Amino acid sequence: MLHHKRYVASSRTQTSGMQAFDCLRYAMWTLAASVCSQFQYVQDALYVQAKTSLEALELNMDDDSGHTRQAQAWLLLSMYELKRVSFRKGWISAGRAFRFIQLMKLHEIDMPDGMNDAHDNVDVKNSQLTWVEVEERRKTFWIAYCLDRLVNLQNRFPFTISDHAVSSVPSSEKSYRLMSSHRS
Known about the structure:
Blueprint (H helix, E strand, L loop, with lengths): L3 H10 L5 H17 L7 H17 L7 H19 L1 H17 L27 H25 L17 H6 L6
Helix pairs in contact: 2-3, 2-4, 3-4, 4-5, 4-6, 5-6
């Protein structure tokens, strides 16, 4: 769901003032440390930092910026929790990601004009978002959708994300990796 070049470029230029990106970075490091034997000794500390940062960000949230990064961080953290901590914590974290995704209306990214509430969601066609940013949002939605389906089918829970709400399909992974962050 993350565009590699964009993420690396952001990590080089971000300052500590970008709280949502810092949360995403800690969530990435947590998940990475959990699968690399040489870094497993720091995974607990990274996990605590990621979770604490995300919760603090929610408490201090006063605008709509950074929600994509926040949703991505919650998704990554939920995957870690489902795998390493507990099902309950992982599912609650996934729920937070699902709510951010629903608030951003990522399921409506490709909905035809006139079919959605124009004042409630981002008008992707007329926005300043690059193709890569839009695609990152699509892929974030689809990661959440797949996680919702996987966990709910496995546990016989009702789905959180309705099939009727889906109006987007992500591009191929090859196209996504090859695209730079320029608008197209």
